[in-house]
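Run log, item B.
One chain of 95 residues. Sequence copied directly from the ordering sheet:
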Amino acid sequence: MARSVKKGPFVDERLLARIHDMNTKKEKRVLKTWSRSSTVTPDFVGHTLAVHNGNKFVPVYVTENMVGHKLGEFSATRTFKGHSAKAAESSAKPR
């Protein structure tokens, strides 16, 4: 279910303050954040955010196409290691 229009998009206040501070100083540096549920706003464009995926921080360079999405969408939490080789062999053999 979507968030109400009256409330507006959720953005962590501390993260937004740090982005505004960097924009006023015109500096670019990587910001570490655990706030995967924050929505990307136009202020974030051009910055690199290190988003925590539960194990490590994944650097995410924010572009215009990402506005409106959540930060967690760009930092995968699970890695697919492939299907088991044994299962592929047994299914490929004719009976």
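Observations after the first pass:
- The chain has a mean pLDDT of 92.
- The CA atoms of residues 24 and 56 lie 29 Å apart.
Flagged for discussion on Thursday.
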